[in-house]
Amino acid sequence: MEEEGQNQALKRIRFEEEDEDRTSKLADSLLVEIISRLPTTKDAIRTAALSKRWKHLWTAVTSLVFLHPYDSNHYANPSFFSHVNKTLTQRGQSKLNKFRLHTYYHDHLHESHINDWIRYAVHCNVEDLHLSLRDHVRGFAFPLDQFVFINSCLTNLTLLACAFNPTGVISWKSLRKLCIVYGNLDEDLIGNILSGSPVLETLVLKHCYGYRRLDITSKSLKNLVFTGYMHNYTTDIIEINAPNILSLKIQSVLVLRKILLLNVSSLVEAHLDYTKRIHHFGKPAEEAEEEMLTGLILNLLHVKNLKFGTFCSKVVDRLKAKGFLSPSNLKVLNVISSPL
């Protein structure tokens, strides 16, 4: 038994040596690519303990992901802020492809740190920037500095709970995809965003509010995703004028009276997968649901591929029972919109 145990131990050591030998033959650039694919930057830093060769490899990664662990008692964890500051100092200012920051904060000191981190990413010519900045104590949207609104390197930008308050022009010359979540936007601001993003292809608005009309006349923008609308006024009517878009998605929970499609003449694909709720007497109004969906369908008869999600398909069934025939290009999907 003892001899058998020794043999197994020798086999394990031999396997580990062979595995280490195979890894040692890989180029540093390939190892850095492997490290960059780890879920978070903290995971990448942990690889420094593997050997002397790995000690500084993580500093060459082109993707940084910082996810603030949620703590119901301490929204802003001091150790998280220290970790990010130390990491950025050690990494230096080499090129960044991706920078993702998900954090909680609740005072001006935290805001100063966060602005420094964003400035760092911008100075590193980041292309994919994802900011999720939650103030759970005061409920404020994070005030973005003007330098965020003037950038020629960004191609993909996601902003969650950020305040759009540019003090000058908006200029995102290379931006191709923009996702705004929980944003307070008015028509003029949306117009400035679109005019300052000449190559924008995809616009995603998730649970944004403050506007009543979307005028999208950009010839580059082909995909519009309208995900959720919640505001204090359930009587809101949202108008969409987007003659050049090819794809339209309306999904998630809508707390409004209706959506009107004014001009979507170029549409090829539309996906209606929303849930409509009106807070009158605590129950959805079936008549309002049917009125809105009927209006949408009548303006989408030219679309080659029209898809319905679960909620909308149930409304269609009611309309069929009342003599309303769904168009032949309709596809009913047995899926449920995933809430954000």
Q: Would you give an account of this structure?
A:
- This protein has helices spanning 2-24, 28-36, 41-46, 78-91, 108-123, 187-195, 286-298, 310-321, and strands at 63-67, 98-104, 128-134, 142-143, 150-151, 156-160, 162-163, 171-172, 177-181, 202-206, 213-215, 223-230, 237-241, 247-255, 258-263, 269-276, 305-308, 330-332.
- It is α/β, with parallel strands linked by helices and 340 residues long.
- Strand 2, helix 5 and strand 3 (128-134) form a beta-alpha-beta unit.
- Helix 4 (78-91) packs parallel to helix 5 (108-123).
- 27% of the residues are buried.
Short précis:
With 340 residues, the chain is of the alpha/beta class. The chain has helices at residues 2-24, 28-36, 41-46, 78-91, 108-123, 187-195, 286-298, 310-321, and strands at residues 63-67, 98-104, 128-134, 142-143, 150-151, 156-160, 162-163, 171-172, 177-181, 202-206, 213-215, 223-230, 237-241, 247-255, 258-263, 269-276, 305-308, 330-332.
Q: Which features does this protein show?
A:
340 residues, alpha/beta, 11-stranded parallel sheet, 3-stranded parallel sheet, 8 helices, 18 strands, elongated, disordered C terminus
